[in-house]
C-alpha cells in the first residue's frame, strides 16, 4: 500500500510531530508519457521550514493536507516516456511518498551513475554541493592565507564549503553545535579550527581561532553568530549569506546589531539562492566528482531509515542533531 | 590673529555647541619646503561625527583640545615648496583654522581651475561626487527602467546619486526630511518622485512611489529606512551602503530587522568608503565636469559664513537642515 507524509498544520515557531501526518494514498497510475518513481532517498533541508509557512518564502509554501515535497532520488518503476526506462536512477522535487507519478516525466533528471552513488545527486554533487561552491568560492573568493569562517560547519553545505576553501589555500574555522561535530570537521573535513558555540562564547572563540580576523564569513545561521562575525571581520570581507536558520523558527525578529561594520569595514554581504545558479551544476559536477571518487574530499551522509521517520528526522535536523547531510532512506538501494 | 575650532569634549549621542571651542592660535611659520594655506571653504560631512568619538571609526578619531579637521579648500598664502605658488588653489585635510601650516606641502592637492569653481574640489568634483558615482553607478549598476531609491536625497551625495541614476535611465525616488527638500530634488535635480519621511510612512510612500519595487537602494541613513527598503526590494537588488547617519548619534544599537530579505531576495549589500576609490577621481572629474559646466547637472551648495559658525553649521547638517552640500566660507573667494 502506498503511503505519504502530508503537512497537517502550520507550525508557529518550532515545528513538532503534530505538524505532519502519515497516511495511505493511492498507487500511482501511469498514463501516456508518464513516469512512476519509487523513492529511495529523501533530502531534508533547512529551507523546508520556510515552505511550511503560509506566505511565500523564496519557494512557494506547501499546501495543508498535501504531501511534503523535497528533492528525492529514486528509481523508475514504470515509464511510458521515451526519456526514461525502468530501473533508471532519477532525482526531482517529489512528494514524500513511497511511489509517485510524475506526469510526462516533467521535473525528473536522470542521474549519471558514473559520477558516483545515486544519493550524491541530492547531496555533494547536487544543490548542497553547488551551494557550498558558489558561496565559498565564487562569492567568498578566498585568497591563499585568508581566514574563512563557516557556521553550521558540520552541515550538508558547511562541511563542503570548508573543504573547498581549504583547497583555495585559506585557513578554515567552523562553528558547530556539539563536540562530536567539532571532532568531525577537524578530523574528517580538515578544518584548521572549530568550536562548539553551545559551550563557548563565539566572540572569544573567534578572537582565539581567527587571530588575523575574518576575510570570508559563510553565513548559514544569521543571528548572534552573524553579529560576532561582523565584529571580527577584516576590511573588505565577503559575507555570502546562504541561510539564517537561527531566525526560521523565531516568532519575533530581534534585528541584527552592529551592521554599521558593513560601512566601516566595507563588507559585502550577498544573499544567494542556489536556484539562480543551477545552470552551473554540470560544470560543478564534472569538476568535483573526481575529488570525491579519489577520496580527496569527504562527505558525510546522516541516514535515517523509513518514510515514517521523516518528520522526526526533519525536526531533529533543524535542532542540529545531524552531522553532514541528512537523508531519509525510504527503500533499499 | 589666527583662530581655530577645537574638539572640547566628546559628545554622547547628539553633539551640541559645548563640544567645540573657538580659540586663538599662533600664526603658522613657513619653514623650508612648507606651505601656508588660507582656508576659504570648509567641508562639513556626516562622517565627522564618527571621528568625534574615542575609538576609531574608519578614520582615526580627533584628539581632544586639538582642531577639528575636514576637507578644506584654500589659497596658498606662502610657499617654500616648488610644487605650490602663492595664490594657487589647493585642497587637503586641514584643521579648522583661518590659516594653517602644511609641512612640506604634504597632503595638499592642486585644484585645476579649468574644471570649475574651487569649492567643487570638495563637493561635486570631489569626494561627495565620487561617492555618488561609485554608489549609484558602479555598485548600484542601474539598468534603464530600474527603480533607484535614495535616502538623504537632498544631501551632498544624494542629489548627485539621483542625477547619475537618471542619466543611466532609471526611475529615481528620494526620501528627504522636509517639504522644501522634496521640492528641491523634484524641481532642481529631476527626481521622478520624492517624499518627506517626517510626515509620511516610508512603507506607504515606497508602495506608492516605487510600484515596481526597488532595484537599487542607495543607503545614507540605515535604521528604519533601510528596513523599509528591504521590504520593498526586488529580487537581485543592490544596496550600496554609503552611510548610516541614523545610527551615528544613537547610544543604543536597536538592530536591523528583516535582514532575512537579503537571502530570500538575493540582495547584495556593499558598504563602501570613498578613500578606497580615490584613484578614480581624475577620471571621474574629467567625465562629469562638463556636465556641470554645461548645466546638464545641478549641484546646490548650502553656505554658512564664518569660521565661528562651523560647529553650529555641523550640528545643523547632522539634524538635516541643509539642502545640498554644506560648506562654511571662512574667507572671501
TrEMBL record, chains A, B:
Record keywords: Oxidoreductase
GO MF annotations, alphabetized: oxidoreductase activity, acting on the CH-CH group of donors, NAD or NADP as acceptor
Chain coiled-coil ranges: none
Domain (Enoyl reductase (ER)): residue spans on this chain: 13-328
InterPro entries cross-referenced by the UniProt entry: ADH-like_C, ADH_N_2, ER, GroES-like_sf, MDR_fam, NAD(P)-bd_dom_sf
Descriptive protein name: Enoyl reductase (ER) domain-containing protein
Gene source species: Quisquiliibacterium transsilvanicum
Amino acid at each position: 500500500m502506498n503511503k505519504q507524509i502530508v503537512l497537517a498544520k502550520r507550525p508557529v515557531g518550532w515545528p513538532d510531530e503534530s505538524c505532519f501526518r502519515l497516511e495511505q494514498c493511492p498507487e500511482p497510475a501511469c498514463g501516456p508519457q508518464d513516469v512512476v518513481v519509487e523513492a529511495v532517498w529523501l533530502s531534508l533541508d533547512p529551507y523546508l521550514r520556510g515552505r511550511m509557512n503560509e506566505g511565500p518564502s523564496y519557494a512557494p509554501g506547501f499546501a495543508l493536507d498535501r504531501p511534503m515535497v523535497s528533492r528525492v532520488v529514486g528509481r523508475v518503476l514504470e515509464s511510458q516516456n521515451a526519456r526514461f526506462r525502468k530501473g533508471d536512477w532519477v532525482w526531482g522535487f517529489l512528494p514524500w511518498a513511497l511511489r509517485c507519478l510524475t506526469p510526462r516525466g516533467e521535473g525528473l533528471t536522470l542521474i549519471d551513475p558514473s559520477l558516483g552513488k545515486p544519493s550524491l545527486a541530492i547531496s555533494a554533487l547536487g544543490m548542497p554541493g553547488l551551494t557550498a561552491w558558489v558561496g565559498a568560492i565564487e562569492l567568498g573568493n578566498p585568497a591563499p592565507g585568508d581566514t574563512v569562517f563557516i557556521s553550521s560547519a558540520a552541515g550538508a553545505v558547511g562541511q563542503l564549503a570548508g573543504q573547498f576553501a581549504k583547497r583555495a589555500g585559506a585557513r578554515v574555522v567552523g562553528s558547530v553545535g556539539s563536540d562530536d561535530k567539532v571532532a568531525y570537521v577537524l578530523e574528517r573535513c580538515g578544518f584548521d579550527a572549530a568550536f562548539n558555540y553551545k559551550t563557548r562564547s563565539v566572540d572569544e572563540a573567534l578572537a582565539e581561532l581567527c587571530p588575523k580576523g575574518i576575510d570570508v564569513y559563510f553565513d548559514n545561521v544569521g543571528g548572534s553568530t552573524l553579529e560576532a562575525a561582523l565584529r571580527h571581520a577584516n576590511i573588505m570581507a565577503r559575507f555570502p549569506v546562504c541561510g539564517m536558520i537561527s531566525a526560521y523558527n523565531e516568532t519575533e525578529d530581534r534585528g541584527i546589531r552592529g551592521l554599521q561594520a558593513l560601512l566601516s569595514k566595507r563588507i559585502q554581504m550577498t544573499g544567494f539562492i542556489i536556484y539562480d545558479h543551477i545552470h552551473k551544476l554540470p560544470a560543478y559536477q564534472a569538476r568535483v566528482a573526481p575529488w570525491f571518487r579519489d577520496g580527496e574530499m569527504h562527505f558525510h551522509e546522516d541516514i535515517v531509515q523509513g518514510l515514517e521517520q521523516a518528520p522526526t528526522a526533519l525536526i531533529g535536523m533543524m535542532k542540529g542533531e545531524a552531522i553532514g547531510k541528512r537523508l531519509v532512506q525510504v527503500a533499499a538501494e
